[in-house]
């Protein structure tokens, strides 16, 4: 890192990453080399900000002209969305943000790149989404963002599974509202007729037996994605590969999302990678 990123200077700009905890945040490590490679005098720096101090910290950083923006992770994604002056359509629909661009007038423009990062991370497999029958396990923040983006990919239908009934209902209603048709519904454990299986929960890190879907019908014609798989493959992905299915893991999503965040923080339009 020290070989590729020069020292901060008076003209440098800061991308503040808020989290509680913040020690696990990977954004600075991943995004700073991208800025350096493009010759952009911009640096992501982590800050430990609690829920109680979020608004105060927000006001301070929003007031500083050399702040390019704010990144937020757990547990601030929803609260930060309420503090923004403007939201992208995805952020507004989901009610959460993970990256905020500070504009020249000091206004804060919030975006959510989980969903777009996911579909971009699919690369050539993104073409499989149009008209597909998709099962989404998990209607939390990342799951909702993915569901919203899937609606824009013109999927055929979406079956959603979550233990939180309110989150499940919110996600189903959101997708149907965006698509203007009853495309989304509450899912079951049956994979029959499913083309794409997406796991947006950490349950895959435990065991395949804990997964709330019967995987007996998982076959080579399917696309299986598990965003929890970062440092290692989950049992779900291992099984999918054994069955000959196309796969995508959390690293695909993360790399695509970091490029989108980098572009946004550097001043580009939301959805434009650096």
Can you walk through the features of this model?
This protein has 9 helices and 12 strands. It has helices at about 25-35, 55-60, 75-85, 90-95, 115-120, 140-150, 165-180, 235-240, 250-265, and strands at about 15-20, 40-50, 65-70, 85, 100, 110, 135, 155-160, 185, 195-200, 225, 245-250. The strands form 2 sheets. Strands 2-1-3-5-6-4 form a 6-stranded mixed sheet. A 6-stranded parallel sheet has the order 9-8-7-10-11-12, with helices on both faces. The chain is globular and about 60 Å long. The two termini are about 20 Å apart.
How would the blueprint of this fold be written?
Layout (H helix, E strand, L loop, with lengths): L12 E7 L7 H11 L4 E7 L5 H9 L4 E6 L4 H7 L2 E2 L1 H6 L4 E4 L5 E4 L2 H8 L11 E5 L3 H12 L4 E5 L3 H15 L4 E3 L9 E4 L23 E4 L8 H8 L3 E4 H16 L9
Parallel strand pairs: 1-2, 1-3, 4-6, 7-8, 7-10, 8-9, 10-11, 11-12
Antiparallel strand pairs: 3-5, 5-6
Helix pairs in contact: 1-9, 5-6, 5-9, 6-7
């Amino acid at each position: 890192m020290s070989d590729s990123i020069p020292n901060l200077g008076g003209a440098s700009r800061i991308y503040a990453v808020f989290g509680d905890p913040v020690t696990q945040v990977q954004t600075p490590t991943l995004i700073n080399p991208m800025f350096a490679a493009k010759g952009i005098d911009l640096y992501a720096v982590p800050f430990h900000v609690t829920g109680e101090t979020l608004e105060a910290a927000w006001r301070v950083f929003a007031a500083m002209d050399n702040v390019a923006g704010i990144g937020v992770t757990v547990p601030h994604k929803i609260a930060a969305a309420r503090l923004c002056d403007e939201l992208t359509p995805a952020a507004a629909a989901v009610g959460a943000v993970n990256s905020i661009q500070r504009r020249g007038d000091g206004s804060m423009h919030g975006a959510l790149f989980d969903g777009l990062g996911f579909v971009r991370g699919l690369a050539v497999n993104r073409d499989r989404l149009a008209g597909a029958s998709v099962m989404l396990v998990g209607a939390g923040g990342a799951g909702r963002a993915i569901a919203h983006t899937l609606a824009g990919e013109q999927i055929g239908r979406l079956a959603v599974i979550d233990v939180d009934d309110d989150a499940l209902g919110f996600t189903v209603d959101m997708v149907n509202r965006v698509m203007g048709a009853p495309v989304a519904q509450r899912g079951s454990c049956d994979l029959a007729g499913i083309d794409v299986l997406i796991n947006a929960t950490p349950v895959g890190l435990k065991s395949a037996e804990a997964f709330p879907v019967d995987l007996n019908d998982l076959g080579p014609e399917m696309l299986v994605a598990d965003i929890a798989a970062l440092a290692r493959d989950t049992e779900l992905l291992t099984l999918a590969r054994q069955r000959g299915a196309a796969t995508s893991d959390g690293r695909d999503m993360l790399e695509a999302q970091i490029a989108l965040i980098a572009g946004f923080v550097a001043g580009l339009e939301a959805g434009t990678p650096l």
